[in-house]
Design a protein that fits this description.
With 123 residues, this protein is α+β, with helices and mostly antiparallel strands. It contains four helices and four strands, in the order ααβαββαβ. Strand 2 and strand 3 form a beta hairpin.
């Protein structure tokens, strides 16, 4: 009987302390949602696409992700996909972008500067 009483008391104490959070702000989720909205980027509407041959890619997951992330950060690239094959020296990237925001030369520059100039775009 003492064991049951102890377990029940312990459970109530744990429940009390887990629900009693004095530092919580009931409006915190609203504030966080507003931060997400204010930091969200405007949707890109591509009006042009290019195929670039890229030398120096060793894997699609790492290298492709680095390229895709850098291009997305320009807020001008809608889509970036790769025709990648292990062991192939030159792979192809298909990039859809808004030409009113970014030029083909700027895209090439962004890719060429990544990872200590690991990638070379071949025209």
């Amino acid at each position: 009987m003492k064991t049951i009483y102890f377990i029940f008391s312990f459970g109530l104490v744990v429940l009390f302390f887990s629900c009693n959070n004095k530092n919580s702000n009931p409006n915190q989720s609203i504030v966080n949602a507003q931060k997400v909205k204010s930091n969200s980027k405007v949707a890109v509407h591509s009006n042009k696409s290019i195929d670039l041959k890229i030398e120096g890619m060793v894997c699609e997951m790492g290298c492709g992700s680095s390229i895709r992330k850098a291009l997305k950060e320009t807020n001008a690239v809608e889509r970036c996909s790769f025709d990648f094959k292990d062991g192939r020296a030159i792979n192809t990237a298909k990039i859809s972008f808004d030409s009113t925001i970014i030029s083909k030369d700027k895209i090439i520059s962004v890719i060429s500067e990544l990872n200590d100039k690991q990638f070379k775009v071949i025209l």
